[in-house]
């Protein structure tokens, strides 16, 4: 039997992939002089030379049309205690930046103040990936907050870091 012989539903895949914990990011850009941002958990390093990261955005996202090749982009890796921001940037139809402290880097892109890490750069490529679009980002600047622990995402929920008890 091959994988082609099997039928996996979206719910089955979501349940299985959801067991793998990941970090939570806020991805931002500037479009028409305005900040645009969304919550993204599908984020990873891609290349050290040249410095690149990759992220995946749902094709139904209202922010996706602003994330075009050549656009400036910021990625803020949320820190523990910033779960409210993850939820805020996932809600449609609101001012996602309301009450949010941001820092500006690169070409004026907003980064979340207090994030565990941040990346600023430019979208280099966009590829179709099923119901998502895969974006590669050339990183021009990045930084970390040494005392921060990352916010974690697993099975549809965010969790603050839990130290190993052993």
Automatic annotation (TrEMBL):
TM region(s), chain numbering: none
SMART domains assigned to the protein according to its UniProt record, in alphabetical order: Flavin_Reduct
Keywords assigned: Oxidoreductase
GO MF annotation list: flavin reductase (NADH) activity; FMN binding; riboflavin reductase (NADPH) activity
Taxonomic superkingdom: Bacteria
Naturally occurring in which organism (per UniProt): Corynebacterium comes
Enzyme Commission designation: 1.5.1.36
Keyword Nucleotide-binding part of the UniProt annotation: no
Sequence similarity: Belongs to the non-flavoprotein flavin reductase family.
Enzyme class: oxidoreductase
InterPro entries linked: Flavin_Rdtase-like_dom, NADH-dep_flavin_reductase, Split_barrel_FMN-bd
Record Gene3D superfamilies: Electron Transport, Fmn-binding Protein, Chain A
Protein name: p-hydroxyphenylacetate 3-hydroxylase, reductase component
Domain Flavin reductase like: from-to ranges: 17-160
Keyword check for Calcium: no
